Amino acid sequence: MLKEKIAFREPTIQLAHGAGGKASRRLIEGLLAPYLNVSELNDAAYVQIDQAQIAFTADSFVVNPLRFPGGSIGELAINGTVNDLAMGGAKPLAIVTTFIIEAGLETEILEAEIKAMHEAAEKANVAIVGGDTKVVEHQKADKLFITTAGIGLVDSRVNLSAGRVKQGDKIILSGPIGDHGITILFARGELDLEANIKTDTRAVWPFVSKLIDAAAPGLKWMRDPTRGGMATALNELARDAKVAIMLEEEAILVNPEVRGACEILGLDPMHIANEGQFIAVVSEEYADTALKAIQQVPGGEQAAIIGEVFESDRHIVLSRSSYGGTRAIDMLVGDPLPRIC
Amino acid sequence: MKMRFVDEFRNPELIRKTLDEIERIIEPDDHFRIMEACGGHTYSIFHFGLQELLPKNIEFIHGPGCPVCVLPPGRVDEGLEIASKNSDVIFTAFGDVMRVPGKKGSPLNYKAMGTDVRMIYSPLDALNIAMKNPDKKVILFAIGFETTAPSTAITVLKAKELDIDNFFVYSNHVKIVPVLKSILDQPNMRIDGFIGPGHASVVIGAHPYETIAKEYKKPVVISGFEPLDLLQSILMLIKQLKNGESKVEIQYKRVVMEGGNVSALEIMNQVFEDRPAFEWRGLGAIQNSALKLKPEFSKWDAEVQFNVEKITIEENKDAQCGEVLKGMLKPNQCKLFGKVCTPDNPVGALMVSSEGACATYYNHLYSTMSL
């Protein structure tokens, strides 16, 4: 029985399997989930403890370089997990953290990241309650890897499920996309390009909290489009909800620096990672209320309705340009690679 | 970075106006088969959804202008073999090359298994890697049409000037006009006109296409990559076709000059010479269609300095890359398309690069057409 579900036949694990796109999905759905008997794949899992619905999630951080304009691995490690909980409609409560440290790492570097974690946790109003530390031989890890796991209390007013997403529902995006991925690409210093751009890392719970207060009955699905970008998140929704999605390209904000970098490198902003944005699907009835609730939280001013759900036999994501051309937006395949001419 | 330059060429009103004009001059009985030579154009046509905006009797044939796609299988293996057999070799290549499937895997697969493979964004990056690693030998897997050949050439000149002896070029540079002529020489070929490549023409200018216009009587319009660029180029082509003309015109005047980039051409000619013949994927050997380093630069020529074992790989017999490249089949008419051959698991190289005709079809048209 189990054997039949193991669809993953690739002989080795490649970088693409960790990039958050199609290959990642093949690995998780074809090997990990069937063995571990995980039936639903979301940013956070739900665990029922007596009367309380708890959201539970874990995330690992291996970013290179450790520090980049606007943030660092420590800040990401807190915000990433806090945001996964928020995407489950849960108020983040507590986090535990593990460090894998390469021998020889300067204490100063580690200290800076611990400090960044502390500050991010204070800002997100979540407690770091424990953890574990391992040190491995020099060159057996890249400086510092951090894993965080978190729990949050699910707001009893929300009922999130791709299965509830129906024709006419609106897609809300919290702000401009692509800042984080392009910042990291530039921060690696491999490109002779510079741009005034920084990561968008932030905790999104303040927005989600207001969104729930204003529009809980109409709120159906949420996702923070990290690796694989918005294209991958929405394709997963289309597939899981068995619907198609039409986006209005003009409504999707992309900062000029990000757009410029993507034009030069042949990348699609919709495939670029974000660390401080989220997508919410809200019924038509509640869409405007939901949008206003997000916009009223400082930092949420640029939120917009970017498209809607429609019924179709093909579970895909389309994007319509201002002059009427439409194109399909596929999931990320492998890592985004720049074109050559 | 000012992006207004791009926005002007995505202006909905101007786009509508150009479309209206195309619709006005094209007649129901017309059927024009236009080859966009460049992979960048193929990508733009689908990315901007131009096909569905244009009248049905304008048909695009997706040309050979994606350098990754026309690279014969075996070529990547040859470069990677050098690197995997010699622990002191660093293999460097542009991003598009990283996923090209070789016999034992792509450069990315080799990298994951421990071969020192590095992605670069400019040939000069490879030279910098060589300078920073004097105890290593750095191979630049150079690829591209005349677009990128000058930057490889200038890097070789720089290596000579700085007397760097651990940098080597494995040249796969190709030329656009010989391959277009070879396609026109194929039997059963019915192409009415060409959208000429924008970037390669920045270097070579308009003159090399004269032979296509004069000898083969096919109009060529050198085009930019934005929706308005392409629509204007199509309009210019249709006007020529309706008037029975075959001229070389430049739509992409903001970048392309009639005579090309003279200094880039000089540098290219200083470093490179034609190969007598070069194998193109799906098209076979084409004479004088590729560039190798001149003998006086053999010190930096990986093909001379390393014992490169010629690797020939049998292509999957069911793969119809050649027919697609010649415009005889649409990508989705290939037996393997979308079933065995997908962007996740490319069998033919046309599926590898985002500018390859098959990958473009798969990512754009294929997913919209059966909606």
Task: Write down the CATH class of the largest domain in chain A.
Answer: Alpha Beta
CATH class of the largest domain in chain B, named: Alpha Beta
Low-confidence stretches of chain A: none
User: Could you state the order of secondary-structure elements of chain B as H and E?
Assistant: HHEHHEHEHEHEHEHEHHEHEHEEEEHHH
**CATH second-level architecture of the largest domain in chain A:** Alpha-Beta Complex
What structural category do the secondary elements of chain B indicate? alpha/beta
Give the CATH H-level superfamily of the largest domain in chain A.
PurM-like C-terminal domain
Proportion of residues in extended strands of chain B? 15-25%
Number of strands of chain B: 13
Task: Tally the helices of chain B.
Answer: 16
CATH topology name of the largest domain in chain A, in short, is Phosphoribosyl-aminoimidazole Synthetase, Chain A, domain 2
Could you tell me the radius of gyration of chain A in angstroms? 20 Å
Q: Largest chain-chain contact?
A: A-B, 39 and 56 residues
**SSE run of chain A:** HHEEEEHEHEEEHHEHEHEHEEE
| Second-tier CATH architecture of the largest domain in chain B | 3-Layer(aba) Sandwich
**Mean pLDDT value of chain A:** 92
Which oligomeric form is depicted?
Answer: heterodimer
Biggest β-sheet description of chain A? 7 strands, mixed
Family (chain A): Belongs to the HypE family.
Pfam families (chain A): AIRS, AIRS_C
Protein name (chain A): Hydrogenase expression/formation protein HypE
Domain PurM-like N-terminal (chain A): 42-154
